Amino acid sequence: MLRLLLLLVGSGFAFAAPKWWEVSSEENAKSLALYFDREARRYFVYTEGTIASSEKAFSMYFNVARGPTVKNICEVGFNAGHSTAIYLNANPDAQVYSFDIGQFPYTVGNSELMKSLFPDRFEYISGPSAETVKAFAEERPDVKCDVISVDGDHSTEGTLADLRNFQKLASCRNWVLMDDAGWNSTNSAWQMAKDAGILTQVECFADMNPRPDYQFMEYPENRSWCLGFFNVQDDTCPAWFQESPNTERTFVRPIEI
């Protein structure tokens, strides 16, 4: 291999080094998320909480995105782009499809910036997710989502609609992550999705002492999220269990400090 590289270099072939944000590492993902946080603050408006505000949440989202069969990552809730930045850095082979209503100026600006950094790997779909995710599933049957992140409308109805619609886009080997699982509204929607057989829960977590790896950033009192997978109605998909392991209530387990 080294000899081949030397021959190519000697023949005049030039190799463009990847940009730092294209090189996957937890440190680069954090730096990229921090960069998008700075860009959002140019607009001098409130930016909502992010998974980057909890080291434990960040680590799980980063590593879930790195799965060897993950090719498409779909999310509701681009907001300022923190999670998108983490996904794109975590898995250099993955495409990210981000759905957002685009109600904040910084969301539109940061989505354009993300597209400039990842022109071939990022697609932003604007509009209410209850409509756009359903339309995307109908118009893009070639796209199946291997990782799905739900962090949009936090009402029970809105969250449940996102979970229902994303089930139709899920691949056989998928992960679904839902942020703010400690909210009554989102927790209820997650439980309803379990009861309806839409998804299977693996675990729900709460970081009761979140501290981002940035000294000057504010941090919330806690961060909570759920991890599971959609039950895909496809005979070509492997069966994971004979009896559903879902519980009758959704408990959010505190993570030990």
What does this protein structure show overall?
Keywords: Signal. The protein is α/β, with parallel strands linked by helices. It contains 8 helices and 8 strands. It has helices at 2-10, 26-41, 55-65, 82-90, 105-117, 129-139, 156-167, 184-195, and strands spanning 72-76, 95-100, 122-126, 145-150, 170-179, 199-207, 223-230, 253-254. The longest helix is centred in the first third of the chain and has 16 residues, at 26-41. It is globular and about 50 Å long. The mean pLDDT is 90.
Per-chain topology:
Elements: H1 2-10, H2 26-41, H3 55-65, E1 72-76, H4 82-90, E2 95-100, H5 105-117, E3 122-126, H6 129-139, E4 145-150, H7 156-167, E5 170-179, H8 184-195, E6 199-207, E7 223-230, E8 253-254
Parallel strand pairs: 1-2, 1-4, 2-3, 4-5, 6-8
Antiparallel strand pairs: 5-7, 6-7
Helix pairs in contact: 2-4, 2-5, 3-4, 6-7, 7-8
List keywords for this structure.
alpha/beta, 8-stranded mixed sheet, 8 helices, SAM-dependent_MTases_sf, signal, Class I SAM-dependent methyltransferase
Q: Unreliable segments (pLDDT under 50, ≥5 consecutive)? A: none
Backbone shape: globular
pLDDT averaged over residues: 90
> How many β-strand stretches?
8
Range of strand content: 15-25%
Secondary structure category = alpha/beta
- Major sheet characteristics: 8 strands, mixed
Helix content: 25-40%
Radius of gyration, in Å, reads 19 Å
The first-to-last residue Cα distance is 46 Å
Strand order of the largest sheet: 3-2-1-4-5-7-6-8
User: DSSP helix count?
Assistant: 8
SSE run: HHHEHEHEHEHEHEEE
